[in-house]
Amino acid sequence: MRVDLIIPCYNEEEALPFLYDALQELAQNEPAHSMRFLFVDDGSSDRTLFLLRELAEKDERVRYLSFSRNFGKEAAMLAGLRAADADATGILDADMQHPPALVSTMLRALEQGADIAAARRTLRKSQPSLYRLGAELFYKLSNRFSDVHMPEGAQDFRLMRKKVVDAILAMPEYHRFSKGIFSWVGFDTVWIEHTDTERVAGKTKWNFFSSFQYAIDGMLSFSTKPLSMMVLVGLIISLIGFLYALYVVITTLSGVESAPGFPTLVSLILFFSGITILSIGLMGLYVARIYLEVKARPHYLIAETNLQETHHG
Ligand code: UDP
Ligand code: MG
Fold this sequence. Notes:
The protein is of the alpha/beta class and 313 residues long. It folds into two domains: 2-127 and 157-207 and 298-305, Spore Coat Polysaccharide Biosynthesis Protein SpsA, Chain A (Alpha-Beta Complex), CATH 3.90.550.10; 225-295. Helices cover 50% and strands 16% of the residues. The protein has an eight-stranded mixed β-sheet, sandwiched between helices. The radius of gyration is 25 Å and the shape is elongated. The structure holds uridine-5'-diphosphate and magnesium ion.
């Protein structure tokens, strides 16, 4: 098989040498397959692009694309998938947290007929526990509230047949949430478990805020259920308010002296304005998404590449 491996890189100068060694070893262990390494430099500000040019110079299996600025990992993966042209296309992180040796196991799965071999991390032991809790909550919520199922610990680390890549590329949305897209397209998937490891060098590009943003993005991308839920909740609450008003009118008419009621009033106002703000916010999120989709801007801009029209061998 012809195999293209996509590696999104953002400031990975420290990790790249380790990764390249591992990739070479992988290619050596798989002489039956012809491999290419497709690095996508996501607007790195360190020497990543310089290293990629060097690697491409001495190794003709190395291809690279370089963005004009940082567009994010989703854009980098998309650019890689568009540039890939192989029977099987893989995606892996540059920091060795997705062990390249595992690609061999994935190849075996594809040889045996699977369409997708995807990695699932079993233990997030290198993650701080607050992050772990957040991730668990995310999977629980999004599996409950959206139409696609994402197995817990699912990653972007995977190997896919060409038809799967074509299906993914046929999804034109601006907000790309790969975990959701991968699961939405379906196909015959084999899950490969691996334990989590520390990144080999360099620093993670994620912080609390970006992880939170990612989780929100993911849930909004694949579901409008939160919107309908809000409508239902709003309806029920208004009904309660109506019944309560009715109750007050009746008791007053029948001569029952009502309490001053100031606390009730305040708490009701707070409660309702809370709900209102929440619904408006939620609606705003969807509208913002429509706005961005409608503009249909390119996902990324390529500043430099050594990709030509010539493909595998
Ligand atoms: N990455 C990228 N663009 C970004 C952020 C990250 O291409 O804006 C790449 C990064 O170089 C790495 C992968 O995405 O290859 C995963 O990033 P990282 O290791 O920082 O994430 P973590 O493993 O901590 O979730
Ligand atoms: Mg990492």
